[in-house]
Design brief:
Rossmann fold; 2 domains; 20% strand; eight-stranded mixed sheet; 8 strands; alpha/beta
Length: 300
């Protein structure tokens, strides 16, 4: 595969991830999102790396294009180095994350091409002192089993940190002047319905009827806690935020589809049409406000 510098650590060549989502098609959009999240994630990475032993091994599972891979590499480099293991099931995303993390220097970066739904991370690259996973566990059929597998890959005293939950990303004003006010909330409800359907259609899907703190305890972790962080780019925003908003709205329009009223679908067509006077990418009232929650626990 072009662009892959070190295939040594690859377990197999995964053609498709188990959830049926074409993540390769989202690489460009993911890079833009990563740039907007970078400042906040650097703070999170430093916080998570601070208590680790010297020369630690850190996993970034479901790393995507590397929004957290680079902050983790920077945090490790600042404290003398370590090993960063990047795991993803999409070759294009893994290559992007690997190149970006290696550019930091002073850290050994090992890419692993693997689908976490079918492979045990305990066999990837040795025991981890920290495993980070952002919005990845909820894409796995049996989430508690996945957590237990991640715990199994930790060294004694190691930490598992998963970014799950938080608050729905906001980027639209309440009244857009196109369609009925409150489009953002209706999109959020339709996206939640799509998410439930996506979960139900995963082969072997198992419900997780508890909060993440309880799930981490059930997976065998102690010292369970959580914290949240905010990504805030207020209006009037830079063009990169407007471009992100257009991509986000395009994705929401794609996954919500028939779940929306015809009038909302008509409003979306106007907002996503570069030739329309109401095109989202040209508006001054677009913003980006996201809140993610990190749940973490320690292996005894």
């Amino acid at each position: 595969m072009a662009g892959c510098a070190v295939p040594t650590y690859r377990l197999h060549v995964a053609q498709h991830t188990h959830d049926g989502i074409d993540w390769a098609a989202r690489v460009a959009a993911a890079r833009r999102t990563a740039a907007l999240e970078a400042e906040a994630l650097r703070v999170v990475a430093r916080r998570l790396v601070r208590p680790l032993p010297d020369n630690p091994t850190v996993y970034d599972v479901g790393c995507g294009v590397g929004p957290m891979s680079v902050p983790l590499a920077e945090a490790l480099a600042a404290r003398g180095g370590g090993t960063l293991v990047l795991v993803d099931g999409t070759p294009e995303a893994l290559d992007a994350a690997t190149s970006a993390a290696r550019a930091v220097g002073s850290v050994t970066v090992k890419p692993v091409l693997a689908d976490l739904a079918g492979e045990d991370p305990a066999g990837f690259a040795g025991s981890a002192d920290l495993i980070w996973g952002s919005r990845v566990v909820h894409h796995l059929p049996d989430q508690l089993k996945a957590l237990k597998r991640l715990v199994g890959a930790l060294a004694s005293g190691g930490w598992l940190a998963v970014a799950e939950g938080g608050l729905e990303a906001r980027f639209l004003p309440w009244d857009l002047g196109v369609g009925e006010p409150g489009l953002q909330d209706r999109l959020a409800a339709a996206r939640a319905d799509w998410f439930c359907t996506m979960r139900e259609n995963l082969p072997g899907a198992v419900q997780l009827p508890v909060g993440w703190n309880v799930a981490l305890g059930d997976a065998g972790l102690g010292e369970v806690s959580a914290f949240s962080f905010v990504i805030d780019h207020p209006a009037p925003a830079k063009q990169v935020v407007r471009d992100w908003a257009v991509e986000r709205l395009s994705w929401l329009a794609e996954v919500t589809g028939a779940r929306l009223h015809a009038s909302d679908r008509a409003a979306l067509r106007r907002l996503l049409n570069p030739q329309d006077s109401e095109f989202l990418g040209g508006r001054d009232d677009v913003f980006m406000l996201m809140t993610d929650t990190v749940h973490l626990g320690r292996k005894p």
